[in-house]
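To fix ideas, we give here one paired sequence and structure record:
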Amino acid sequence: MRAWHRRRVGLALVLLGSIAKAHAGNSSPGPAPSPPGPADWSGVYVGAQGGMAWADTGWTFPVDSYFTLLNGKRSFSSNPSSGFMGGHVTWNHQIGAVVVGAELAINGGSLHQERVGTFTSLFPNDRFDTSIDAFGTLTGRFGYAFDDVLLYASGGYARGNARFRAVSGPPGAGVIGDVKQHLNGFVVGGGLEYLLVQNVVIGIEYDFIKLGGATTQIATTGTPSTDPFILSTHDVDMHAVSARLSLKLDQPAAP
């Protein structure tokens, strides 16, 4: 009886092992999760940018004025700089790995430099302020996408608001010449963007902006002066480096 019992137990174990092997052989793993698709850069984006800008420009008085000596020095350079912040709207269209698009960007800041006693030691307290408080660009973009990384170049139209203000100090204090100009020009640049998640893009950008100078004639204010204030401003060569954050507005529907 004991031998027969042992035999029955052995047969049961063999049968259970066969069933387990058969189940293991017939079972199949569940479907593997689908890999994420390639990055899609096409769409409309809105965002913000901020960084540093610095410029090279200058003043020229084409004729002798209250702020210059007769037949003396009439020109000097100015290098305003500051941080800036702004916003942008971007449209991209992707064809294979090539990405083309357009962008409108508007920036505000306070690029500024003050020079004192520029022309002569006889008037050491005369102040000359150069400032650029806003600039904007309308550009076309051409880039190449390496999946979630986009390298691009850009170029187009640029416009800036500049102010050139002279204030005389003693002796002869109180004469003010205040010129405000809307300057036009062009911009070229480029940058790198990274698709952080499906609809969030971070990036960096460099722009070179050239704005044409202009000649303006105004009447001075403050203490009366018999001389008109005639100022020819030099071209503005501006460099801007910014960090960017963009949000993609038109997302595909979830499956």
Summary: Residues 172 and 223 are 8 Å apart (CA to CA).
